[in-house]
Amino acid sequence: DQQVKQNSPSLSVQEGRISILNCDYTNSMFDYFLWYKKYPAEGPTFLISISSIKDKNEDGRFTVFLNKSAKHLSLHIVPSQPGDSAVYFCAASANYGGSQGNLIFGKGTKLSVKP
Amino acid sequence: DVKVTQSSRYLVKRTGEKVFLECVQDMDHENMFWYRQDPGLGLRLIYFSYDVKMKEKGDIPEGYSVSREKKERFSLILESASTNQTSMYLCASSFTGLPNQPQHFGDGTRLSIL
Do the beta carbons of residue B75 and residue B20 sit within 8 Å? Predict the structure, then answer.
């Protein structure tokens, strides 16, 4: 059973507009969430993260929102640029007594930003 | 910056061969991980290690083994390669000392088993 779900395999957005990538999770023990970006033939690159004690974290054009009651998080990219075209993975982990658990990844969403 | 280096970007092997994938990190990270990435399946954890000579099974360990003789190096071994092990293999490392540390990935090895 998938604990981290990215229900949209792909998303197409016009340059300059907002991209919103969504992620849902089922395990209420998850308390740390991350987004990774992956270009073809490269490894995933860490983008932004959020702890469960927050509901928003912002880094430049990237903002992650966490809604714990809905077990939902989203990544907003504003404004979107063609260089943002990549596969985005959502990941989650749980801290068990101070020892961080492994990351559980979603299946990814392929973002295409059109000029 | 963290550097995770995988020894080969592309590798072609034959069915039944023993295959070694090597990974080295330069940040003195305690944790190291091996994943495989397949279209539509995301990243799946094969094995991980929290310390030298320690290893733990991930979600899909069958057909694989690992070795961690030194802190900076984590090897993935395909004991007898099969065509269903054709995939992109990704190594990652992370730091234990502080909570909520991201994993840092290498560029991957595209392995083809013929």
Answer: yes
User: In chain B, positions 69-88, which contact chain A (CB-CB < 8 Å)?
Assistant: none
Largest Cα span, chain B: 43
Using a CB–CB cut-off of 8 Å, the residues of A that contact B are: 9, 32, 34, 36, 41-46, 49, 51, 89, 95, 98, 100, 102-103, 105-108
CB neighbour class for B80 (10 Å; exposed up to 12, middle 13-18, buried from 19) = exposed
The pLDDT tens digits of the residues spanning B8-39 come to: 999 999 999 999 999 999 989 999 999 999 98
What is the rounded CA–CA span in Å between residue B103 and residue B55?
17
Task: Provide φ and ψ at A83, rounded to 5°.
Answer: -70, -10
The Cα–Cα gap between B27 and B35 comes to: 19
